[in-house]
């Protein structure tokens, strides 16, 4: 049987490294476009302040980039050490987008980041702007490939189990790339990064205004952040709704758990705005329902029914029974590869093989499972309802707050009153951690909500782990925690140091000689 | 426009503060790559390699799963 401690520690290690890595990625995604916008304004207007803004926010971008780069590599180490069976089982499919991402990240991003910092006095303005634009495009494209790989774990399309190699193999790479889950994930995730980038600029600029420093510089930065942030916050919410719809299509149990929908309700189902899910009683106490909303979001209709947790557990029992037939046929084929009847039986139930593998957590041979074993395995397909319920609601709450804050910022900037209300500046400053919170919670919803599957319906997480010992995983876990904690301290110190110094402290702004009135064409060379 | 093709003016990244930033930026990346290489060399490389030949994977999936590395 499987050593659950190894599974738990391996999951913890992967979750911690992924969550840590994803503190940096979205800021890179969002800030890179903000730099491109600021520099585009500089190229169009020739006004020095826009160039200095690009350079100052570029410095903070650079620290984030340097701290974040390669923090994802340890996840790839773990595919080999802790998740060897996972890697073997799905490597044929999962490996390709990861490899493309690696090439993109190293060649595109690494080249353009160097040119971004050190090409200012070597490239023409337009060429430098193209570099900044390609830097943003490169970071966003590498996110696309990672999300294609991740989406395949949520909705494993374009692939089939091969009995001879004992692993999943690609049958249609186009289907993997154009997976509808990948599309909704990509747009939702990059928009979340844009919200973070905008909030980062808005909050730090608000701090300068509160301190009475870099006034003109901060107000312009906030103007960009307000408009970019408002567009991004609107799209993160609209596209979050699209994510909800694709989850309904492909991961019904995840959706039912997010909603704590214990039983199937008549269509259109209500959305539970608040409540305390009780796993033991399979009920939600003090629930406040908004009629119809869930049915409309989840099915885009008034008459399609969303299945509840109870019904989905029943479906899982059926699929486990089907999977046991595939499993037994596989065992027969192991003895005689030419057993045509066994092969036909396998092909008839192949789709449910993963469900039989759920039984391996408690049984050496799933073919011997009793009805009680089957019921227990089916019940194990329910993810952690209270965590998903709350993580989702906090993420959504943050989304609504971002729309309000950026819309108000936009309004203030249109009226040129960004520095008039201290309470607003304080609210903008203290909102800085919220996009990070929403983003990490989003990943918890997506990944914890996929449990007990590593690959939805195909490979249970517990079966993907390597045959390593508890001591080995515990040691590498401790090593990673130490390494990442040290990095986090260095990151915080550097970010704070450069943000505190600000454009004035770094000698970037104001310029030594007053900025000439722009003639929209020439910017005098500076010594 | 001829102006857009000229090099942009001397950059802050060439100033003293900018050069210092460049050094810090490079040092972090080099430090991290070295640390990761060391972690890989001392912690990851010595770990046993999982046997993922089809027959061994069939063992993993079909026969009782392994519990410790040495029973492979
Ligand atoms: C009304 C607002 C929102 C809705 C309806 C929503 C919906 C969702 C859903 C359904 C998922 C799970 C997708 C899956 O499991 O495949 C998700 C994940 C995620 N959310 Fe949200 N979300 C909202 C707001 C936000 C905000 C404000 C942020 C951050 C600024 C955010 C960041 C994320 C991230 C990073 C993920 C994980 C990646 C992914 O699965 O797409 N979300 N969101």
Automatic annotation (TrEMBL), chain A:
<comment type="similarity">
    <text>Belongs to the cytochrome ubiquinol oxidase subunit 1 family.</text>
</comment>
<feature type="transmembrane region" description="Helical">
    <location>
        <begin position="423"/>
        <end position="446"/>
    </location>
</feature>
<keyword id="KW-0349">Heme</keyword>
<keyword id="KW-0472">Membrane</keyword>
<keyword id="KW-0479">Metal-binding</keyword>
<dbReference type="GO" id="GO:0019646">
    <property type="term" value="P:aerobic electron transport chain"/>
</dbReference>
<feature type="transmembrane region" description="Helical">
    <location>
        <begin position="98"/>
        <end position="118"/>
    </location>
</feature>
<keyword id="KW-0812">Transmembrane</keyword>
<feature type="transmembrane region" description="Helical">
    <location>
        <begin position="390"/>
        <end position="411"/>
    </location>
</feature>
<dbReference type="Pfam" id="PF01654">
    <property type="entry name" value="Cyt_bd_oxida_I"/>
</dbReference>
<feature type="transmembrane region" description="Helical">
    <location>
        <begin position="130"/>
        <end position="153"/>
    </location>
</feature>
<feature type="transmembrane region" description="Helical">
    <location>
        <begin position="56"/>
        <end position="78"/>
    </location>
</feature>
<feature type="transmembrane region" description="Helical">
    <location>
        <begin position="186"/>
        <end position="210"/>
    </location>
</feature>
<dbReference type="InterPro" id="IPR002585">
    <property type="entry name" value="Cyt-d_ubiquinol_oxidase_su_1"/>
</dbReference>
<dbReference type="GO" id="GO:0046872">
    <property type="term" value="F:metal ion binding"/>
</dbReference>
<feature type="transmembrane region" description="Helical">
    <location>
        <begin position="473"/>
        <end position="496"/>
    </location>
</feature>
<keyword id="KW-0997">Cell inner membrane</keyword>
<keyword id="KW-0813">Transport</keyword>
<keyword id="KW-1133">Transmembrane helix</keyword>
<dbReference type="GO" id="GO:0070069">
    <property type="term" value="C:cytochrome complex"/>
</dbReference>
<keyword id="KW-1003">Cell membrane</keyword>
<protein>
    <submittedName>
        <fullName>Cytochrome d ubiquinol oxidase subunit I</fullName>
    </submittedName>
</protein>
TrEMBL record, chain B:
<feature type="transmembrane region" description="Helical">
    <location>
        <begin position="21"/>
        <end position="42"/>
    </location>
</feature>
<keyword id="KW-0472">Membrane</keyword>
<keyword id="KW-1133">Transmembrane helix</keyword>
<keyword id="KW-0812">Transmembrane</keyword>
<protein>
    <submittedName>
        <fullName>Uncharacterized protein</fullName>
    </submittedName>
</protein>
<dbReference type="InterPro" id="IPR054636">
    <property type="entry name" value="CydP"/>
</dbReference>
